[in-house]
Amino acid sequence: MVSRVIPVDNFDLVIFGGTGDLARRKILPGLFRRFLAGQMPAESRVIAAARSDFDDAGYRAEIEAAIQEFGGPESKDKKGLEAFLGQLHYVAVDATGDGGWDQLKSLMRDGVVKAFYFSVGPSLFGALAERLHKHKIADRSSRLVVEKPFGRDLETAKELNATLAEHFAEDQIYRIDHYLGKETVQNLMAVRFANVLFEPLWNSHYIDHIQITVAETVGVGGRGGYYDKSGAMRDMVQNHLMQLLCLIAMEAPNQFEADAVRDEKLKVIRALQPVDYHHIVRGQYDATESSPSYREDVENPRTHTESFVAMKCHIANWRWAGVPFYLRTGKRLKARGSEINVVFKDLGHSIFEGDEARHRNVLTIRLQPNEGIDLQVTIKEPGPGGMRLIDVPLDMTFAQALGDEAEDVTDAYERLIMDVIRGNQTLFMRGDEVEAAWSWTDPIIEGWTARGDVPKHYDTGSAGPEDSLMLMHRDGRRWREIKG
Ligand code: NAP
Questions:
Q1: Residue 19 CB less than 6 A away from ligand 1
Q2: Which of 89, 167, 209, 240 is catalytic?
Q3: Scanning 94, 150, 379, 406, which has the fewest C-beta atoms within 10 Å of its C-beta?
Q4: What's the topology of domain 11-147?
Q5: Mean pLDDT of 96-118
Q6: Distance of CA 440 from the midpoint of ligand 1 (Å)
Q7: What is the rounded (10 degree) CA torsion for 178, 183, 189, 193?
Q8: Tens digits of per-residue pLDDT, 388-430?
């Protein structure tokens, strides 16, 4: 069964940073897949802009190679690829100079959706916004896509918001958090708000605790310079993990509409209590015989930046009073996997004898790998021999439930880009949300600096520092294993 593709209007999409890593690995391969799915109208254009010296033919050759490397099985479609490349153009533009802007202007058309993707470092956002305005390339109907990181603390996020606000209104700005573009994350909202089963139980009366884990097996790779100034808290918790927490914890919006959803997420962030520093564990990975330590990776032998963080936090409202949310994320861990586990409470009274009666329902929302949702339920173990209970997953993995249609699970970037073209901001962070998130994380980071906090070491290939396990054990709980 082929999934339904909603066509979009004709567009001119300008990608500043069109020669960069993100454009090559994600944005252009994603657009190519949307093209093949019939979602990119033939009159639409993608215009890449950066300082490097390319003509259209040279740029197309670069992107052909990038799509062959990163585009998945679809890149074998030679005719499709050729047709897609024909819709690409390149303009040499320096964000901080005035050359190239007239040529860019001459390529832009009236009467189509105009979107500008800032796939460049945030220090260039202001210069780009100003030149788009000065050269009259962007107008009130244009859309602006900006990448993470959105600031490194509240102050810088406010500055960035103010810079963009000089030339663009909030309803023109699309702040990307690609976690929100994942199929399962949106499915989480469908599970919560399109079923009668879950919402009545979705509160402190029935939920014991919630775990959110984003585990990576890779180290910092080539991003050491950036990462060491950032750390897991800024790079992952302030954006991705908090966004997931918001979608789990928010009240039902009155409609599935951008500001209604974002208002509810903002209320969650504002209700997050300050975190007791005893409830946070930071870590740094050690070397193995075959892989370097974090400190070697970032070439900074004295760094105290964390490559792992685990914490327990609370949301101060009626729904979640007393329910801990445990968050953890880290690099060079034993398995790669992102998942949310909603762990329900024990039964008040069990009619079944013995330890085997101690079973719990757990709703697991897996973001990667194998996106899907499963619900752990307790049943009788089949066969004779009395009433023995076992836990089994009610598996809602898309591949099983949806067959061929699941194979068309759209990558987060391509979905989000198409939402920009449709003018749908639901899955993008609003400026006040980002600022509220920094207001919560800043005191944690400042506390570490003030106390001279030193991250705990952990073995590459482990589940993180021992203290992270203790964070759970002290509460009589344990992390659910990430199987990868
Ligand atoms: P990158 O590989 O360093 O690419 C930067 C791009 O900016 C290049 O195309 C570069 O092209 C262009 N550029 C630099 N200075 C310029 C100037 N003065 N005027 C015009 N263009 C200029 O970076 P990236 O990894 O693609 O990341 C881009 C943005 O996405 C960053 O904000 C990053 O934090 C964010 N991001 C990246 C990833 C990822 O996986 N890569 C993930 C999440 C977020 P020229 O040198 O040709 O000018």
A1: yes
A2: 240
A3: 379
A4: Rossmann fold (3.40.50)
A5: 94
A6: 28
A7: 160
A8: 888 898 887 655 666 555 445 568 899 999 999 999 999 999 9
Would you list which residues are annotated within the binding site for NADP(+)?
A: 17-24, 51, 148
Tens of pLDDT, residue by residue over 291-305, are: 999 999 999 999 999
CA angle (207 as vertex; 377, 191 as ends), nearest 5: 65
User: Are the beta carbons of 152 and 229 closer than 8 angstroms?
Assistant: yes
Residue 124, ligand 1, Cβ within 6 A = yes
Separation in Å, CA 368 to CA 185, 213, 215: 11, 11, 10
N residues, the chain: 484
Q: Which amino acid is at 333?
A: L
Residue 100 in contact with ligand 1 by CB distance below 6 A:
no
Active site residue 279: no
For the chain, give every residue range classified as CATH 3.30.360.10: 180-413+430-474
Is the pLDDT reported for residue 237 higher than 70?
yes
The model carries a pTM of: 0.94
Whether 20 lines ligand 1, by a CB cut-off of 6 Å, is yes
> Is the pLDDT higher at 79 or at 71?
79
For 454: left if phi > 0, alpha if psi spans -120 to 50, otherwise beta; the answer is beta
Which candidate, 329, 347, 325, 341, places its Cα nearest to that of 282? 329
Residue type for 315, please? I
What is the distance in A from the centroid of ligand 1 to the CA of 124?
Answer: 10
Q: Quick one: which atom of ligand 1 is closest to the CA of 16?
A: 21
Distance of CA 17 from the midpoint of ligand 1 (Å): 5
180-413+430-474 belongs to which homologous superfamily? Dihydrodipicolinate Reductase; domain 2 (3.30.360.10)
